[in-house]
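Researcher:
Attend to token order:
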Amino acid sequence: MDKDRVLRIFEAAEKEGRGVLLEPEGLEVLRALGIPTFDYVLVRDVKEARALKLGRWPGKKAVVKVVSPEILHKTDEGGVAFVQKSPAAVAAAIAKMHRKLGKRDMRGYLVCRCVPFDRALGSELLLGTRWTRDFGPVVTFGSGGIHTEFLAKNLRPERSLAIFAAQGTARRELERGIRRTAVGALLAEPQRGQKPRLPLALLADAVGKMAELGRLLAPRWRVEFEINPLVVSGGGLVALDALAKFEPQSEPLRPERPIAKIRNLLEARSAAVIGVSERMNTGHVIVCNMLRQGFDPARLFVVKPGSERIEGCRCVPELAALPEKVDLLVMSVPAAQVSELAAQAIELEKTESIIIIPGGLEEKSGGAGIVSRMHAALAAARRGPARGPVINGGNCLGIASVPGRYNTIFIPDYKMFGEHSGRCGGQGAAVPGAAPSSARGGGGRFAFLSQSGAFAVAKMSKFAGFLPKYAVSIGNQTDLTVGDYLAYLKDDPEVDLFAVYVEGFQPLDGVRFLESVREITASGRTVLFYRAGRTSEGKRLSASHTAAVAGDFAVTRALAEAAGALVTEDLADFEDLVRLFLLLHDKTVKGPRLGAVSNAGFECVAIADNLGALKLADFQKGTMRRITEVFARCRIDAIVDVHNPVDLTPMADDAAFADVVRAVLEDGGVDAGVIGCVPLTPALNTLVPGAGHREDFLREDSIVSRLIRLRGETSKPWVVIVDAGDIYDPMARHLERHGVPVFRSQDRALRLFGAFCARRGAVTT
């Protein structure tokens, strides 16, 4: 690319006071990029048109286009004409345009060679770059021309348009994204024995050049540059139009945060809390939480005048009286006091990190002025050698950290888990690092980042047995951002699942987020991601309560998926996938071959109908023999044959059911399992003890106990479906409490288990 040539074109337009390029300028930019364009001549009026020599151009037609900074969509306003290739016809078209549009700011007329191209579907493309607040410049590729709107309405989003980050996208990501679009596959793949119309490399080159343009211009301008159409002609690509709009970069970049200090925040060895009363208030609950978690009371200070000790912790009258520079300062004070107190802590160099609990700051209209003093102090500190503290929040519930032996989440434990410690005046609080009695493995390898504190605690109450190593309620991102946390935590080898809930990125923080996602997923670990604020109303509401400026969800999803994140469609999927990855954290996925078992014929059909990227395994002879023996023992062989999925019928008892499941999971040709247990059959123990029956799923010989034992005997992942009413909830909860994932419908089980297998193994989606 001729970078100097491109920059000169934009600089000249900016000097004129324009925020758009004229089409000849846009075409020159494309030529500087190395993207072919058509031959053209720029004329000022009818007189110059009559003097044209057009005989050197092939064909019988020419195209006339108006050139004006005020007319961007020329076809809609009558600014494009297809005419005979003669000076007289061109002059007549220009005269007509002048009569209609002459009062506008006219800069002349382009007389263009008419480029021949195949009008079949796939011959017209759209290619462009545009600035986004979250991710900087992004590139779009898809169908263009007359088919653009039709295909966008009738194809899934990922099939109609590919979206790429201009920064950090590898060549293989470009090619994979192009292939996923309908038009990319149509051009670059053979069709019914016909050779591809274009090499995939040619399409990827064009996308890469547009990404390079976006990167070049981003430091100075926010640019939208679009080619529509980019046509297939003569075995290559030719741009037939160039539309460019731009404006100067106006939002200053935030100074880099010293993210190494996140260690002080997450693994604090000394701390202070301000906003603690003698009676139980939020600050007092936080102190109790930290002590219950095991924080050293000798290193925990309370900033409170008039008191000597609270809960055994030394009190000091003001921040200046703290006896040491603490790792962590927790501020649980009214919003009006936040800015001044934070500024004091920064200027006195009394802490390496701060958690700001209260809301009513940036997320509230006019709230920016409240925190101006704090921001000024922080900016000054960042210019010094110590760089100042890092700040989490405001408007957050705080952080729970197992390595830090603390949490500042001030929800009582009886509200989170139904358990009560009785300490701190009887007002126990949640201890998200000290799991309740129902805890099971996997949680310690889990980091939970949530912009919403309410979302964090709501989900943590459901993840009660999988309490994360770190749970961070990020809040407004006054200082530390989602991208900062992921950039720091990605280097923790003990964390292999990152669950991230975001309502809005700070400017360009999406770039750092994507970089970290790529590193995490390249190492074989998983990022589960949910982006809120997908609709106009959702964007408005998320901005109102977290100071987020929500971006375009389609862009976010496309870029996050390309980087390797597993983007969930809804909150229920997010919750279930976290649970699934944690319950199956110790299992190995070696391939897509599925073994399925059910005691209901409809469920066998439903499993087969919802395989997705999984495929039914062919059972080995030994497996067939073992299942046949069980069928004969239970006299099922007279009703059904052995096949995959295995239909046990309601006749199979606890032992027979477990024997068949074991045989299927021990088959060398089976990589994963789905076990459907319709629990209403009297042949199985699936109920808690009660009047009118003798069932008890807690018995050692029940199907429930047998499945739990089998969970520890195989390295293969498998899930159970319990498709029945709420009287079977205790059965489902007991299985999950002992590490067996349970779903309550077949389609949901197959869809989410398939997503797990795709992420953890060799299934191709």
